[in-house]
Give the backbone structure.
Amino acid sequence: MKLNRRDFVKLSSTTALGVAFAGLGVGCKKTVDDKIAQMKPTWSKETTSICAYCSVGCGLVVTTSLETKRAINVEGNPDHPINEGSLCAKGASSIQMTENDLRTGKCLYRAPYSGEWEEKSWDWCKKRIAKLAKKSRDKSFQEKNEKGQVVNRNMGVACLGSAALDNEECYAMHSFMRSQGIVYLEHQARI
């Protein structure tokens, strides 16, 4: 077979077009419909969220199983204006914050001057934290300043907010801290 330059270009172009269009799945409508059905299962629910790792605030789409009520997938939100669907390595692995068998589900407590850890219940821990927070507040609470003016402030406790909180969560946190008289309030986005 004798092949000149023009015939070679025609044959190469035809072959390239054939290979390009072969991957489109012409005549495979059933397979495409099956894949679309798999991407939107009826046994799960998608919820938008925000990544909790840093102050950027990338958008996430969390897929939760309706049967087990557990997260089964976390991916970037393509409709979010900050990250447009992309995630860093930490954000891509954020499902491990909630769905990780290696995380401990127990509270450990080490008494003062002790070298041993003890397992405690969540109720015990919550009561202990509340008791210590009140003790600290009572110890450092200042009702009046040097001039005798009523100030009602807590000078021994500070609060640093996370930039991963949305506006509503920040408002609730600051309202709670202000109700305790805390004046040293800061936010990660300002640091």
